[in-house]
Design a protein that fits this description.
There is one protein chain. The protein is an alpha/beta fold. The protein has a single domain (24-189), classed as Rossmann fold (3-Layer(aba) Sandwich). Helices cover 57% and strands 13% of the residues. The chain is built from 8 helices and 5 strands, in the order H-H-E-H-E-H-H-E-H-E-H-E-H. The protein has a 5-stranded parallel beta sheet with strand order 2-1-3-4-5, sandwiched between helices. Helix 7 (149-154) links the parallel strand 4 (139-144) and strand 5 (157-160). Helix 2 packs across helix 8 (166-189), helix 3 (52-65) packs parallel to helix 8 and helix 5 (101-107) packs parallel to helix 6. The longest helix is centred in the last third of the chain and has 24 residues, at 166-189. It is globular. The mean pLDDT is 97.
Length: 191
Amino acid sequence: MINEIGTQLQAHQALLARLMAEPYPSQVQALAERIIAAYRTGGKLVIFGNGGSAADAQHVAAEMVSRFRRERPALPAIALTTNTSTLTAIGNDYAYDRVFVRQVEAIVAAQDVVIGITTSGNSPNVVAALRAAHERGAWTAALTGEGGGLAGQAADFCLAMPSRDTPRVQEAHITLLHIICDLVEAGLYGA
């Protein structure tokens, strides 16, 4: 068991080491800058995913609305995974593939940044929502595993982790999303 723990930690560490090399730092900065620009022009962050990615979406939305490191005004951010009545109504009345699309149609505007998180890059409901947000004029980003999948193709921007191992991809996503939260706060409100 101890060997397995070390193996898991080494895999995590190896992936984070890969993320320190280009193009990843530049991509993280670019995504943070798009979010900053959206906030400066009255936009909001809309973010979503399934399973662990849903939890990451909620986590990031909470960091933006509440705060990450700095005392500052609340920033508008919505995780499309939090309203169970909406999710279950859409899933029942339409299909699970439309749970995010319907919400995008209701709340996304052209000045918004929309982020879909999918470790495989191929979650049908995430792909469909990214396409719908793009059609509404919003700037879209996909956070995925290696290759980007259909979500990477549907989005304006794809931050694809250099791994297909779901736990490692999820760990990388939340690490980079924390960095983005920090960069957004610093960009809007200074150190």
